[in-house]
């Protein structure tokens, strides 16, 4: 997938993206380019501004300055839900599921948007039943078929994250933004999610925040390193991991120890 | 984790269970309707009508708090608007039939709901409650000053008239069945709203708003629709109440009323369909009984104590607790 990245323009691009909170600059003049079909990782030490970048991209926070372009068009002034409707769907750091709905309903609530009946309060729920089949397929895809009728609150953590992916996939997004998809997982779950992301990213673009570097090295085509809100380095895993600045700021190499890391 | 056999058997077993639960629920509702139909022969119809009006009011409020997670502290404004508009129209235009008066009152309350909603829906939690309270107070003072409300005296002697122009509502029994039909309509609308495509999105928003937004739903718009439905039904309750008691007064607009509906809903069980009915029944009965007893002046205190006990010891309300007990022991 890394062969076709040279000629195409970026799917998602930021120009001078900046976010200030009362004098504290959380994101500082970030110019990011995500290429079509890539799995692009955003890494950096705690407090580097990765999640803030996510919140800016999906308009959960308004940027102080800068422009966000999706397929060449500015989306800076759009609302969060409109960005999702464009096919840019994000996940959250803490598993974001609808706890008191079944796994099936979780997926179905994403599927039902395309029906255009979501404001129809006079219609029966039964009008959604024909979506069940597709919802089950999606659950199958992430290995949750048997949980279809389980209330999400009763599912194990790793499964919730998988369900979240299924819900995201239900929207058939052109681009997924995953905020630490393997956070808080055991090794076994991590492997499953990595395989899953690899599979579902076919034909899609993924931008992910990730702490687990082994995950990043296995999955990602390109890596952007953030430190203190600014881009420190960018490139493939090899390039980035050899960069002395990155080693010092983030990777905790023998030379740099922990000094540069604690903010 | 589930075993293989369980997982294989699950879908059909679940479907079967859902089917049976649905059948039981339908039978239960049918029984309730029968009870409602014979009730006026067993109890004083005017009292029952009062319960039904407040139950509808509480159900409307519960749609908002229980299913959209929004605590409005201004619902009295809708109850009173429905009541005053219907009262004024029926008293001033003798040709107007009661159902048209009620529809007009309901529509105006709905419009007021749009206004309230647009101004308040972006705020969350306590700020939302405060904004609704503030606007409801504005509405209250408007009713105190406006010439058509009769100010402190209220509107008296609103004629019940003839339903559709030919069914006299002067007998309490006829009036009761009309009110009962309105209640069933309101209750069914809420039930349907909760179990509709819209209800699914509303539930998702209540469960996790940012996630619902990230799926492309405009959360504020959905909350607004829920708010407007709730306001309209509260208005319907107020309009009906005015026809029943032939009276519209400032009591309905006072913030006490907004508090009372919260009490009814929490006591019965917020987020349960039958809780508000139960809560309204208990509160209205208590007021009725206490008013005739030597403890008449202590109504507020006693209700207050009950409220405190309820919030401290059975948080999910009477129906909520019963439901929990049922789930624990019979499933």
From TrEMBL, chain A:
Which Gene3D superfamilies does the record cross-reference, listed alphabetically?
Answer: P-loop containing nucleotide triphosphate hydrolases
Q: Which SUPFAM superfamilies match?
A: P-loop containing nucleoside triphosphate hydrolases
Enumerate the CDD domains for this protein. ABC_Mj1267_LivG_branched
Q: Name one GO molecular function term.
A: ATP hydrolysis activity
Matches recorded under Pfam families: ABC_tran, BCA_ABC_TP_C
Which residue numbers delimit the ABC transporter domain?
12-253
Entry-linked InterPro entries: AAA+_ATPase, ABC_AA/LPS_Transport, ABC_transporter-like_ATP-bd, BCA_ABC_TP_C, P-loop_NTPase
The domain of life for this entry's organism is Bacteria
Q: Name one GO cellular component term.
A: plasma membrane
**Per UniProt, which keywords does this protein have?**
ATP-binding, Nucleotide-binding, Transport
UniProt entry tagged with the keyword ATP-binding: yes
Q: Which PANTHER family match?
A: ABC TRANSPORTER ATP-BINDING PROTEIN, CONSERVED COMPONENT OF ABC TRANSPORTER FOR NATURAL AMINO ACIDS-RELATED
Protein name according to UniProt: ABC transporter ATP-binding protein
Instruction: Name the species this protein comes from.
Output: Vreelandella maris
């Amino acid at each position: 997938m890394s062969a076709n990245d040279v000629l195409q323009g970026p799917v998602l691009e930021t120009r001078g993206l900046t976010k200030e909170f009362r004098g504290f600059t959380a994101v500082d003049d970030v110019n990011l380019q995500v290429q079509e079909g890539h799995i692009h990782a955003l890494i950096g030490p705690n407090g580097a501004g990765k999640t803030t970048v996510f919140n800016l991209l999906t308009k959960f926070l308004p940027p102080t300055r800068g422009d966000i372009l999706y397929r060449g068009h500015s989306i800076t002034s759009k609302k969060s839900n409109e960005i999702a409707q464009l096919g840019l769907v994000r996940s959250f750091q803490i598993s974001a599921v609808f706890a008191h709905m079944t796994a099936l309903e979780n997926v179905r609530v994403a599927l039902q948007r395309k029906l255009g009946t979501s404001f129809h309060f006079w219609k029966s729920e039964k009008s959604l039943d024909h979506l069940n089949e597709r919802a089950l397929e999606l659950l199958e895809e992430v290995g949750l078929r048997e949980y279809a009728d389980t209330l999400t609150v009763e599912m194990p953590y790793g499964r919730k994250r998988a369900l979240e992916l299924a819900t995201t996939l239900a929207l058939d997004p052109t681009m997924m933004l995953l905020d630490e998809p393997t956070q808080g997982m055991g090794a076994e779950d991590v492997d499953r999610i990595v395989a899953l992301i690899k599979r579902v990213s076919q034909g899609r673009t993924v931008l992910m925040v990730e702490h687990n570097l082994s995950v990043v090295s296995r999955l990602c085509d390109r890596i952007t390193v953030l430190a203190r809100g600014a881009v420190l380095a960018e490139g493939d895993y090899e390039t980035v991991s050899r960069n002395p600045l990155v080693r010092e700021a983030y990777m905790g190499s023998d030379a740099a120890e922990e000094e540069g890391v604690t903010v | 984790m589930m075993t293989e056999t369980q997982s294989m058997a699950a879908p059909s077993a679940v479907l079967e269970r859902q089917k049976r639960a649905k059948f039981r629920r339908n039978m239960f509702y049918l029984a309730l309707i029968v009870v409602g139909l014979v009730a006026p022969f067993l109890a004083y119809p005017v009292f029952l009508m009062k319960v039904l009006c407040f139950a509808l009011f509480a159900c409307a409020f519960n749609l908002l708090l229980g299913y959209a997670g929004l605590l409005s502290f201004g619902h009295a404004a809708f109850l009173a608007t429905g009541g005053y508009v219907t009262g004024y129209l029926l008293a001033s235009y003798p040709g107007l039939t009661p159902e048209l008066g009620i529809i007009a009152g309901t529509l105006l309350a709905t419009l007021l709901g749009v206004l309230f909603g647009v101004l308040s829906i972006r705020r969350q939690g306590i700020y939302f409650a405060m904004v609704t309270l503030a606007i409801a107070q504005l509405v209250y003072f408007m009713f105190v000053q406006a010439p058509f409300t009769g100010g402190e005296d209220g509107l008296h002697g609103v004629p019940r008239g003839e339903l559709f122009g030919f069914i006299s509502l002067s007998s309490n029994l006829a009036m009761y069945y009309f009110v009962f039909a309105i209640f069933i309509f309101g209750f069914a609308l809420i039930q349907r709203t909760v179990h509709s495509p819209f209800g699914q999105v509303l539930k998702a928003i209540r469960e996790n708003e940012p996630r619902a937004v990230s799926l492309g739903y405009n959360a504020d718009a959905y909350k607004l629709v829920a708010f407007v439905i709730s306001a309209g039904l509260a208005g319907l309750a107020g309009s009906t109440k005015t026809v029943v008691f032939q009276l519209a007064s400032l009591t309905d607009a006072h913030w006490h009323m907004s508090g009372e509906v919260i009490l009814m809903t929490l006591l019965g069980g917020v987020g349960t369909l039958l809780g508000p009915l139960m809560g309204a029944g208990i509160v209205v009965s208590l007021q009725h009984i206490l008013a005739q007893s030597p403890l008449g002046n202590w109504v507020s205190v006693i209700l207050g104590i009950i409220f405190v006990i309820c919030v401290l010891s059975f948080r999910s309300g009477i129906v909520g607790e019963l439901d929990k007990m049922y789930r624990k022991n019979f499933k």
